[in-house]
Amino acid sequence: MSYVRFAALGDSTTAGVGDPVPGGWRGWARLLADALGETHDVSFCNLAVSGAITGDVRHKQLPEALRHQPDVASVIVGVNDTMRSTWDRPRIRTELLETVESLHDLGTTLLTVRYHDHGRVFGLPGVLRRPLYSRIDFLNDVYDEAFERFGGLRVDLAETPEVWMREFWSVDRLHPSELGHRALARAFALQLDEGGMECPLPTIVRDGGYEPNWRSDLTWMVTEGVPWFGRRARDLGPWAARMAVTEARGLARRPVPVHAELVGGPR
């Protein structure tokens, strides 16, 4: 068995939120590490932290990852940046590219993603969904640039059928459920295996270690969900209102097509 060092960098998704097990969270990265462990001697280092933004990954997690000297490293971050008023495109691009480049220079196999339309999963109205997706679209452009420059493996979540299934998501519809984490781990395992690093595919079947129920969902909503949405509302509320007004003004100023006037007829 060969020795493989695996470092996982990112936010709550990589930290495992949405896939609870006794004593904490598990998540897709742990599932992938366990799968690799069936054919390799694996040293797994999960540095991901709930709430992390690109700056946290670049300045806090990356130095630890470099000390681990990973053969494989995942970098999945940026969604928290899109939901903050501190959104700064040049800074985010720089932090993401510096992180990926530093790992690439070690000869690390990089695991990244392209994001889906989160607003569609949340069920947001178009007036809020479109501005949010414009930020997600920018993140995807940066990940595209990183992939073109440094290579690696990646999963396009928008092209993953499970993303549009309710069962893929936990109660908050932001973090994957156990099934979602398993699907993501399986997608990366398949690419690693096809790339020559023998890796059995994690099962997509729940292991029964945790049974979701309305009590646990309610507990999450009271203790975590409501406070989280409250913090995001205070941070993003003014921005969302401005975006809504801007779009409304744009629609009001848009000229009415001639054919629309003809169809409507005189009133």
UniProtKB/TrEMBL annotation:
The keyword Transmembrane does not apply. Keywords: Hydrolase. GO terms for molecular function: hydrolase activity. Coiled coil: none annotated. It comes from the Bacteria. Gene3D superfamilies: SGNH hydrolase. The keyword Hydrolase applies. Pfam families: Lipase_GDSL_2 (PF13472). Residues 8-183 form the SGNH hydrolase-type esterase domain. This is SGNH/GDSL hydrolase family protein. It comes from Nocardioides cavernaquae.
